Amino acid sequence: MTPFLWVIAGFVTVASVVLAVLSFVPAYRAASVRMQARSVGLALPAEPSPALEADFAGRTRASLIGSLLGTVLAVLGLVSGVIPTEDPPALGGVAETWLVLGGFYVGMGVGAAVRALTVRTPVPSGERFARAGAVDIRDYLAPIDRIGSRVAVGAGVVVLVVAATVSITAFGMTPVNPGLIVGGIVVLLGVVSLVVSEVATRRILERSQPAASPEALAWADATRAITVREIVTAPMSLGVWGALAIGITLTDSFSVGNQWPAGLILVNVLVLVIAAGIVAAAIYSIASRPQQHYLRRLWPDVAAAAGAAPSPASAEATR
After folding, report:
1. Which residues contact 56 (CB under 8 A, 6 or more apart)?
2. Which candidate in 28, 72, 145, 214 could, as Cys together with 22 as Cys, close a disulfide (CB 3.0–4.6 Å)?
3. What global pTM score does this model have?
4. DSSP characters for 79-106?
5. Which residues contact 13 (CB under 8 A, 6 or more apart)?
6. pLDDT digits (tens, 9 = 90+) for 37-95
7. Residue ranges per domain, the chain?
8. Closest CA to 146 of 55, 53, 231, 243
9. Residues 6+ apart with CB under 8 A from 94
10. How far apart are CA 247 and CA 227, in angstroms?
C-alpha cells in the first residue's frame, strides 16, 4: 500500500471511531438530530425527544462500526497479498484507494441494514397511527438512487468485460495486470452489494412502524429513507469506482506498454462517459434533493420550512 493509501485508511478509521464515541455525547446527539431534520425536511418535535436521539445515535454507531470493519478487511486484503497490487501502482494506486473506500461504504450499508432489521421498535400505548395505504421502495428511494445503483453496477460489469477483452487482445492472457484485478474485485463487490441491498431494503419495508402520532410516523419514514439510501450507496459507488479504476489502470498500461490505438480510444471513451455520468448525476442530485423524496411521496402536506407538524390527513388512527 502507498503512503497516500495508508493516510486514507487511517483517516477513515480515526473518523469512524471519533464519530462513534461522539454518538454517546448528549450535545452531539441533539445536534445530529437537528442536522438530519434539515436534511430530510422535517420540523423538530416540539419537545426534546430522547428516543429519537437514541435511535439516530444507534443507527450512526451501527453504520460506523460496519464501515470500520469493511475498511479494515479491505486493508488486510491488500497488505496480506490476498488481493494483488501493482508495484508501482498505476497512477498512485487509484484502484487500491477505491477498494478501501469501497470497503468503507459496503460496511456502512451492511451495518445500517443489520441494525434496521434487528432493532425492536417500542409499541406505543393508547392510540396509534398507521398509513392508510401500502408503501414500497419507490416511496423511499428517488429514481436517481433506486435506478442509479443498478445502472452503476451494470456499467461496471460492462467496463469489466470490455477491459478484459481489450487487455487480452493487446497483451495476451498473461500476466494479468494487478490493477485490473483490483478494479474487477471492486465491480464484483458492487454486484454482491446490489443483490444484498435489493433484498435488505424490501425486508426493512416489511417491518411494522408503530407510531403514537403522525409526527412520529413521519420521522419513522425519514429514518427508513436514510437507512435505505445508505444501503444503496455501496453498489452505486462501487459500480462507478470499479469502472473508473479499470479504465484508468488499462489506460496507464497502454501508455507504458503495448500501444493499441483502437483499444486505447475505446477505454478512454468509456472512462469519459462514466466521468460525465458521475458529474451529471451529482448535479441532478443536488438540484432534486433525493433525501426528501419520501417526504414528497408520503407527506406532501408537510411544510417543514414553516415548522408545521405532519398533518393527520396523511395517516389514520388505530387502536
Report:
1. 29, 32, 33, 36, 223
2. 28
3. 0.80
4. HHTSS---SSPGGGTHHHHHHHHHHHHH
5. 68, 71, 72
6. 888 888 877 665 787 888 888 888 999 999 999 888 888 888 877 776 665 555 556 77
7. 3-318
8. 231
9. 179, 244, 245, 248, 249
10. 31
